[in-house]
Amino acid sequence: MKNWHLWKQRVSYGATDMAGNLIWQIVGLYLLFYYTTVLKISPAFVGTLFLVVRVIDAFDGLFFGYLIDHTHSKYGKSRPYFLWFGIPLGLLTMLLFFNPSFGGSKVFQLTWISIVYTLFSLVYSGANTPITAILPALTNDPDERTNLASARMVMTNIGTAVIGAISLPMVAKLGGGNSQLGWSIWAVIIGLVIMALFTVAFLNLHENDELPVEEAEAEGIQLQSHLSVKDSLKGAIKNKPWVILSICFILLQTFWVIRMQTAVYYLTYVYRRADLVGAFNGLIIVAVLGNLAVPLLSKFMKHRNVMIVSLTTFAIGEALMPMGVTFLFIGTVVATIAMGAAFSISFVMIADTVEYSRSEMHIDEPGILSSVPMVGAKLGMGLGGALAGWILSWGGFNADAKVQGAKAVTAISTSFIWLPVILALGIVVILQFYKLNEKEVASAVRAAAAKMEALKDQATDTTTSAASGDPITPTVAATKDQAADTNAKDKAKDDLETED
255-266, pLDDT tens digit by residue? Predict the structure, then answer.
């Protein structure tokens, strides 16, 4: 594949997650703040709404993963979902910040908010589950998969950095002093961008669903696919690395959502520097440095260890932030770079568990296994949002008070600093039980790919010989099969020794 095609694929793949994270960032950073300070809805109601919706749709990622595994279209398994759900996601983004007064009826207003937020959450899963599911079908090169995952997170963080930095100024400018109007107009703009990005991805990405099957056949293995829901879940549960990674991803998303949703509170009410919110949120751009570091780090460390180092560094950065404005920014730069690496490597690790399922368990269900990010994101958003809202209520947060009481300040600091630190270090402990060796899995994949190419060359030779009238005896054919197998294994062994 030429460099131009490689980069077109990387950018188009990154566009998918950039699209989803434009609204994810706004929801994570500002929706709780918008509901409680612009619409004057109680934090307890909002926190409960977030949790209830997560209970409703917590596992819809598994449902969409199952649909992807059983989808057959000329566009592939995952790719059509970028249109089927990407366009509606843009429309629901607009509705999320369009809140009619309903004649002053609070009941109708709360009902409207609840319905729109629930629909948004369901459609978000449909648009984002295929992003991870399509990765193993874009290439069978483990290094290129790492590059694609890094490109995904680079574009995601560029988008979220821009959104974090300019949202409040744009809302103020567009609304002319009317915050509710400003948010409505801004949401329309973001919704249109989301639809455009998903369309670009649909037009430029091409998945090869037959790639794993061809590699398995070269090894004489029959992959199990198109399983029932029950059998799919049984296979997933038996995949121990996947189970451990799923737990870690849920905790990762939980503490990240808590941190995102309480950042504006921390600057506004703890440091009393609301003027720094835009600049602070804009620093998400430095996560790109963590994204770009992952391909390099993964050459020297196991993927699990990259995650452990990243989360430990995040905890150190968080601990610096209460020490003054200077350390607030230094700490968030350190923590954000670390999280850039953590999220990038987590998507690579999910692809590792998919390959592990194929090579060790002979099960090809990438949709179900790749639903981990969506399940984790949903549970994380629900648990994180609920915890943030409940902790604020426990602290006696008052949206009308410019200065909060000591208990409220403690509640905000706990949500923004210390709870994320505790959960991050908890993940580090859990990862000690993650034993998947991605180098061995990658070596097996390369061996299968090499054998597949050797067999294709043999088939070409056979066709050429037949056309020229030269006989192909069983002995000669068997000798070529053995040579292909030996060459593939030798190449895989050399690759593994080089990596070690």
Answer: 888 888 888 889
